[in-house]
Design goal:
Radius of gyration: 15 Å
Number of helices: 2
Strand content: over 45%
Shape: globular
Distance between the termini: 28 Å
Mean pLDDT: 88
Number of strands: 11
Order of helices and strands: HEEEEEEEEHEEE
Low-confidence stretches: 1-24
Structural class: mainly beta
Length: about 180
């Protein structure tokens, strides 16, 4: 499977395989963003999780807006490919060549999945397009127990740079690592 298919599939499996049964109401932990000008809190079952296998490492984080079947979700994954370097505090964006970065915003009630990140930027570049508001993810601190930081960028429907987009700003998170 090529990396353009592998990464969104990996992210979807990791993010959506987590149960929505619990509400993360602990005010110490949060996953918030402004979506097209509307502040949204994704604190239901908000989580961060490491996936490590040898030199491969992925850090996933995200949450649900509420406990309903068609709850909106938002999240991201950082994968240490192709560099196999450690994921640490710092800036990650979709223009880098050491890490894969993918953001996702999903609206199940409308059957819409918006993505941003390395895969989208590569597709836009292949098409000769320049994306003006690329995914920017800043991890201010990361440990085995807690991750926190900020994110923003344009997310495009089905990772198609020609499709409709959603702009996410003021994204912030502080999550317990499961």
């Amino acid at each position: 499977m090529n990396r353009f298919l592998f990464l969104p599939v990996l992210f979807s499996i990791m993010f959506f395989s987590c149960s929505k049964s619990s509400d993360s109401s602990n005010p110490e932990y949060y996953f918030n963003a402004t979506v097209n000008g509307q502040k949204v809190t994704f604190n239901t079952n908000a989580f961060a999780q490491w996936e490590i296998n040898g030199d491969f490492a992925a850090l996933m984080a995200g949450g649900y807006e509420n406990n309903s079947q068609d709850s909106r979700t938002a999240g991201f994954v950082i994968i240490n490919l192709p560099s196999k370097k450690q994921i640490t505090a710092g800036a990650y964006n979709d223009s880098g060549d050491e890490f894969e970065v993918i953001g996702s915003y999903n609206i199940p009630a409308q059957e819409k999945d918006y993505q941003s990140g390395t895969t989208l930027s590569a597709e836009a570049e292949r098409m000769g397009m320049n994306l003006p508001n690329k995914l920017e993810l800043i991890i201010t601190s990361v440990s085995d127990n807690i991750i926190q930081g900020n994110f923003s960028g344009d997310f495009y429907l089905e990772a198609d740079p020609m499709a409709e987009k959603v702009t996410i700003t003021n994204g912030s998170f502080r999550l317990k690592v499961l």
